[in-house]
Amino acid sequence: MTDLTNLISRPGGHKDSRREIIDVTPRVKKFTVADMTGLELGHHYHARTNELFHVLEGQMRIKFEDINTKQRMEYVVTPGQNVTVPLYVAHLVLPTPNAVFLGEVHPEFDREDLNPYKITW
To answer: What's the rounded Cα separation, in Å, for the pair 12 and 118?
Structure first.
């Protein structure tokens, strides 16, 4: 017999002036961007954590720079599209105001794997 008395939980996460992040699961986070223009999220790369973003609302412009080869690419990601962030590729996310997107990491999020890398182009 299953106990149905305590099935609701409150996800973790955090909020600042730029965005709110809700931990949907240990590997999936929901980002809701503030109603502000000119936001820059990222400026880092991962050496151990694979990352994928899926846009739900609004759009994100994302800049990539391979930290080893210095190859650069830029994409505009719209609702229903995913973008994968390869290892050792710095990324800068430039979302539209009020954009909503999911971020999936594998393995689980590791704060120690946030390696600062400023993208200035």
So the answer is: 28
Question: How do strand 28-33 and strand 115-116 relate by DSSP bridges?
Answer: unpaired
- Per-residue pLDDT of 11-20, as tens digits, reads 889 899 999 9
Structural tokens at position 89 = 């590729």
Mean pLDDT of the chain: 94
Residue 37 has which token pair? Answer: 């223009």
CATH number at residue 91: 2.60.120.10
In a domain, 46, yes or no: yes
- How much is the pTM? 0.87
**Could you list the residue range(s) of the whole structural domain that residue 99 is in?**
25-116
